[in-house]
Amino acid sequence: MAALKVCCTSGICPASCSTLACSPNHTIPFSSNQITRIFPRTTVLSSFYLCRNSVQVHSFLSIHCKTHFPFCPLSSTRKATRIPPAMATGSVQEDLPPALDSTSNPPPIFDGTTRLYISYTCPYAQRVWITRNCKGLQDKIKLVPIDLKNRPAWYKEKVYPANKVPALEHNNEVKGESLDLIKYIDSQFEGPSLYPDDPAKKEFAEELFSYIDSFYKTVTTSFKGDGNEAAVAFDNIEAALSKFEDGPFFLGQFSLVDIAYAPFIERFHPFLLDVKKYDITHGRPKLATWIEEMNKNEAYRQTRRDPKELVESYKIRFLAQL
To answer: Any alpha helices (H) in the chain, and if so which ranges?
Structure first.
């Protein structure tokens, strides 16, 4: 399954950047209203999982659904480890700069400063922004927000010919694509590691990265239908969160995988609650806990947007033709 292109290529972003003005306010949490779930659950079947690194067979519960999904709960006996404080809290607070538009002058490009070009409203750019914060790199990587609805001509001409965000200016080069960038920042910069050493977790992480395309398309397609497809997609997320038991995150401990999914679940949760009266956490305790734990992460919370703005943006984007 091919991974989703992780960028914003026009003023119409796959999330909120087509409709919202940039704002530094990112502190309102997910709604926690409990509304009765209206979609049918998938049937849970018993099966077996054969560990690739061992001849031992582990029993598990797999989610039986219409679409292929490779994630299955796997019991783990590893002891839980604490998340490094810098990764969990994002100790550096910063005043967010205003977005640059067509009237703005360019920064002194390729002067040795590392810059991260984002849009405050783009979920793909948000991934890289979160990674920067979690690594404690606020003083090492300068944030340069771009107004995608009125972007400066110099951005395409002098910075990134693809004219997309996110983009990273580093070592006299500019790199793009959010999944590539979060891995690059994690491996090339100082700070706590956000990727596991465990081979099994690395393999599962790549499966989760590959699933993002299908997850996004399934959920957004359901916006104009009865929502059954969304139920399947979030059941799959619940199953994925059940695989490792050494923590509440996708790989047990907090990682780039959580960063990759957070901006989208941040948007899907309030939208489905408002429009479909569907709480994605109802009947999914792992997902509910994951959202609670993510909301405790200050590095992530600094990038959050007002859920009301996200809902209105999604209504314009996905429901305008209904």
So the answer is: 85-89, 123-134, 153-154, 178-188, 199-222, 228-240, 256-275, 285-295, 298-301, 307-319
pLDDT band for position 319 (cuts 50, 70, 90): confident
Query: In whole angstroms, what is the distance from residue 269 CA to residue 95 CA?
Result: 27
Backbone torsion region of residue 300, taken as left when φ is above 0, otherwise alpha when ψ lies between -120 and 50, otherwise beta? alpha
- Residue in 143, 131, 130, 133 with CA at minimum distance from that of residue 96: 143
With tokens 């004219």, the residue in question is: 163
Whether the Cβ atoms of residue 194 and residue 259 lie closer than 8 Å to each other:
yes
Distance between CA 35 and CA 278 in Å, rounded? 6
Are the C-beta atoms of residues 314 and 216 closer than 8 Å to each other?
Answer: no
pLDDT at 98: 96
Q: 270: closest CA among 278, 282, 260? A: 278
Instruction: Find all residues with CB under 8 Å of 255, minimum gap 6, and list them.
Output: 194, 195, 196, 201, 205, 249
Strand pairing of 173-176 and 167-170?
antiparallel
Residue in the block written with tokens 């090339």: 188
Give, as one character, the DSSP assignment of residue 148: G
DSSP one-letter string for 223-254: TTS-SHHHHHHHHHHHHHTTS--SSSBTBBB-
List C-alpha distances in Å: 27 to 74, 111, 289, 298, 301. Answer: 34, 33, 19, 10, 6
Tell me, rounded to whole angstroms, the distance of Cα 58 from its chain centroid.
30
DSSP string, 14-61: SSGGGT----S---PPPP-------SPPPEEEEEEEE-TT-S-EEEEE
Tell me how far apart the alpha carbons of residues 34 and 278 are, in angstroms, rounded to a whole number: 9
What is the predicted pLDDT for the residue at 318?
Answer: 87
pLDDT at 92 (0 to 100):
64
Question: What Cα–Cα distance (Å) separates residue 317 from each residue in 13, 167, 220?
Answer: 9, 24, 10
